[in-house]
Specification:
Elements: H1 4-17, H2 20-27, H3 31-45, E1 50-52, E2 57-59, H4 61-85, E3 94-100, H5 102-109, H6 113-119, E4 123-129, E5 143-147, E6 156-169, H7 171-177, E7 193-194, E8 202-207, E9 212-217, E10 223-224, H8 227-235, E11 241-244, H9 245-253, E12 258-260, E13 269-276, H10 284-296, E14 300-301
Parallel strand pairs: 3-4, 3-5, 6-14, 7-10
Antiparallel strand pairs: 1-2, 5-13, 6-11, 6-12, 6-13, 8-9
């Protein structure tokens, strides 16, 4: 059996120390021995990982990819050894990279961070908030909080919550332009939409006569690619917007935004999942984080006019 973990460890030590000599000293080996190990690794992979010059070492693109994957592999090995050494009850520890959309992250994840880190002080949480679709491997994320329908993939997912959609506007906008009484009235209103596809230029509303939902075309002078900016524009009185409740529930309760067309609300729900790399045994820090947020974020957020946010 070849010593792939040993080769991987030697390669990583060279990268981290910046030289073959320093890596060799840390292992108690000669520089030539470390050089031979890395050369053997490159030969087995059939590609150059490190470009050697007289003064510096530089990773090739393949070397960068291998290094990022190797970090995870060796972290998993460490996790496995801790798990066995503690009789299966390893304490969550190490770096945990989490990615979430801006609005959901700010309103639902960030408030839980202090309590999570207090409960798991050996975890170093690296939280990134953006509205781009994240590749967990390429972006080195351990957990991604994804909003909406999940594409088919080899990733594992756990449903965190569902949030009801609501259409809304600021009191100032409604004072200037009037309250829409039916979905058809939206034709004369400035509606804020997403620039993510034609489907975002139609909002579903309920037909009270049939009890069925049907799309209503909307248009306006502002499009955007994220809910947080849309919320801000609605607060500024730019127009009517439609988002899931977690974006705007506090603004509605504070009277800064006003729900519109609630009798026609189709009751659509936006589903939020925690997604992680699909291996059978999760690192304890990943499992701890996913369990922690799933237990504290309401399973369903069904805002109703006059009743506030009803967590279920």
């Amino acid at each position: 059996m070849d010593n792939r973990a040993g080769e991987m460890g030697a390669f990583m030590r060279v990268v981290q120390t910046g030289s073959f000599a320093a890596a060799a000293r840390s292992f108690g080996l000669s520089p030539s021995a470390i050089s031979k190990i890395v050369a053997r690794l490159e030969g087995r992979l059939g590609t150059r990982l490190i470009v050697r010059t007289t003064r510096t070492l530089q990773l090739t693109p393949e070397g960068e990819t291998y290094y990022e994957r190797a970090l995870r592999v060796l972290a998993d090995i460490d996790e496995a050894e801790r798990l066995v050494a503690h009789g299966g009850a390893a304490t969550p520890s190490g770096k945990l990279r989490v990615n979430a959309s801006v609005s959901f992250g700010v309103r639902r994840i960030v408030p839980l961070v202090p309590a999570f880190l207090a409960a798991y002080p050996d975890v170093q949480l690296d939280l990134s908030l953006n509205d781009n679709m994240v590749d967990l491997v390429e972006d080195r994320a351990d957990v991604a909080i994804r909003v909406g329908t999940l594409p088919d993939s080899g990733l594992k997912a756990r449903r965190i919550c569902e949030a009801r959609f609501v259409a809304f506007a600021s009191p100032a906008y409604l004072e200037r332009h009037g309250m829409p009484e039916t979905p058809a009235d939206l034709a004369r209103h400035n509606c804020l939409t997403f620039n993510l596809g034609r489907s975002f230029h139609e909002w579903p509303f309920l037909d009270p006569a049939t009890g069925q939902s049907s799309p209503v075309p909307v248009r306006g002078n502002f499009q955007v690619n994220n809910g947080e900016t849309m919320r801000r524009m609605a607060l500024e009185g730019l127009g009517i917007a439609r988002l899931a409740t977690y974006h705007v529930d506090r603004d509605i309760e504070a009277g800064l935004l006003v729900p519109v067309l609630e009798p026609y609300n189709a009751g659509n729900l936006q589903v939020i999942h925690a997604v992680f790399v699909g291996h059978e045994h999760l690192a304890t820090r990943v499992r701890a984080f996913v369990d922690f947020i799933a237990e504290r974020i309401p399973r369903k957020e069904l805002w109703q006019p006059g009743a506030g946010l009803r967590p279920l």
